[in-house]
Amino acid sequence: MNSIAAPLAPGFERSGSDAVTSTRALRICFPFAGDELGGSHVSARGLMEGLDPARYRLLVVPEVPEGTIAEFFSAFAQGGDPARPSRSFVPGARFGIGKVLRTLAGVPRRARFLRENAIDVVHSNDGRSHASWALAARLARARLVWHHRGDPDARGLRFVAPLLASRIFTVSRFSLPQGSGKAARAAQVVYSPFDTTVTADWAKMRRTLVEELGCAEDAVICGWFGNFVQRKRPLEFVDAVERLGALLDKPVVGLMFGDPRNTEVGDALPQRIARVSGNARVHMMGYRSPGHEWLAGCDLLLVPAAREPLGRTLVEAMLVGTPVIATDSGGNPEALEGGCGVLCPLDDPLAMARAAADLLADPERIEEMRTRAKEAARRRFSRENHIRQVTATYDELAGMRS
Fold first, then answer.
1. Among 72, 86, 146, 346, which one has the highest count of C-beta atoms within 10 angstroms of its own C-beta?
2. Whether pTM exceeds 0.90
3. What's the structural domain count of the chain?
4. Does 154 map to a domain?
């Protein structure tokens, strides 16, 4: 199969030369594997919305035509994946020899696709997209920006990126490749972009939650946001809520926001929720948007995650003034540095509950933390900073194109 799967938007027909000149906008391809939305897609769209269309022409290549991701990026020109797999790779699953061979089969078609559309830079944003498009970018003589949003021990980052990537972005210092090799030299931290102007009506959102749940006005509402994967420790969140209920003389309500279909814990989570006793309750809230407004309705954000590169919800909580209690693991300390939250040991729900109880007992400390967190988030995680860093790299790579 040599044809592309869907028509391209006007302006992406091959114009006879791959050379970048001062008269042609830099052509950047954003491929996305699978069809499940996540933080990487939110960040990528935040970048794309801020790029100058006179300087950069963008092409989104979703794996699934007219799917969830295609709809999410509907404001941008799109082309069909010329080597769409018969079944998508599972996020986070081990990449064995069979998957490698499946990926290699599509490389010639993807490389031709990039050449025909005179793509200058391929910007891949997740492990499956790296695997599917990195070698094709190299063969098409396009520059590759490998945007790493995972663990520094990831095999792709350690073994493939050094061979194929022109530049490696990581979302935190924690995610930087270790050592002094080529990957480390090609990598830089680029914090994800956030709309730092967001605001939320705390009183209104809290009232909305209290009315929906039918809980007491003085209940302590603890939030969880994300996919139900082992790394995020959803069961430990339930444990911490129950422990907090035992420490306080008022009701404690845990709210878990996220798509229950994206789960690695199966029936263990609803079964554990059903066993919550004493002064605490936990509710599954489903996926709700915009997330920052529901965050604002919570008294606390509890983040029990292990080796999370840099959770978006931590920064969103900082922006709307919701205090954060997080594990001292992964990128959490980096996000909360400077006293912007409270850190506690990993896999210790009792320690998290005690940290929450201590914070709730000190309203003055909470207000000081809110002020610091908002100021820090606006300074460090603005969309403008992100775009400035990324475009500097794009322009540098354009000058390197052979």
1. 146
2. no
3. 2
4. yes
